[in-house]
Amino acid sequence: MRNGRSKLAVLAAIPLLAAACSNGGGETDATGDGGGDLSASLTGAGASFPDPLFQDWIYTYNSDVQSGVDINYQSVGSGAGIEQFLEQTVDFGSSEEYLGEESLEAAAEARGCEAVQFPVVFGSVVIAFNNPDLDGLVLDAETIAGIYSTEITSFDDPAIAELNPDMDLPSDEIVPVHRSDSSGTTAVFTHYLATEVESWADEYGEGKELDWASGLVGGQQNDGVAQGISQNPGGIGYVNQSYAQEAGLSVAKVVNADGTPIEPTLESTIAASEEADVPDNFQFAIDGIGGEGYPIAGTNWIFTYTCGYDQESADAIIDFWTWALTDESAQDLAGELGYAPLGDELTERVIAELEKTNSENGDEG
């Protein structure tokens, strides 16, 4: 189900809503002088998937918007991020897998109030290689599943050759690389395979951690997988698009639901995100992508609480994420790294949810 936004509208500047949406913490200073009137020290932890973007956002926000707000985001993986959020050792958590009912109940029981979760950005999980001659190699869900189940062991396998009749394929042995930590990127990748390939669903399933086939190479976080790809002749792995860009890796085109091989780009990620039907509780997946959309697309969620923060911290959390979601420079940073921003209507919904942060504290802070 499409949410009605056009690609041009998404790529254009999103109106600045920060001042109107601040939760009493003062208006966002968008003048670029890094003044601002907020003072807080925040810690977040979780997904490595959005880490390149989050680090750029944090640096720009501290330098140009609110110099009194220090944010330390720890790229520890989605599983560890959820764990630290539920243990209340961080101010906010981050994951490519939303909090299910069990986790929400655990959060409420531990904190004494409800958790808040909302999406902040979309991104593609790309299939990357260290061989430049393989750039643009066409793969589909069946061949990707075959590679990771070790049924396909060389690049000139007939199943790959059939998809690439005009490419001179090497006979190199394929070395699949996977995440060895609890990973939202793995959750997105394996959800795609489990949704598209029945045999994969039956044998391996999906989730942040998997019982992989023997003989695969593991890597910690997205950068560890990128390193594993680069360091192994015949290396192939799944990483967020920005990591492939940074490492200079070649990427595959992946056949989508309409049978079209799609290159992972900002535009194809936006097209995929437009297919998402986002419910009121923000618990959703991006499935069955056709048209011009890249089929392995995921979402990053942020988690906060409706109570328990001092007011300065709560104001800073709301102000930072409002700025990240609405400021033109913040959205430009996302696009440069291949991340797709939320559409206007979804942004308004997300900010309304974000403003529930610390709302149960009332005026007592």
UniProtKB/TrEMBL annotation:
Residues 37-328 form the PBP domain. Keywords: Phosphate transport, Signal, Transport. This is Phosphate-binding protein. Belongs to the PstS family. Pfam families: PBP_like_2. Residues 1-20 form the signal peptide.
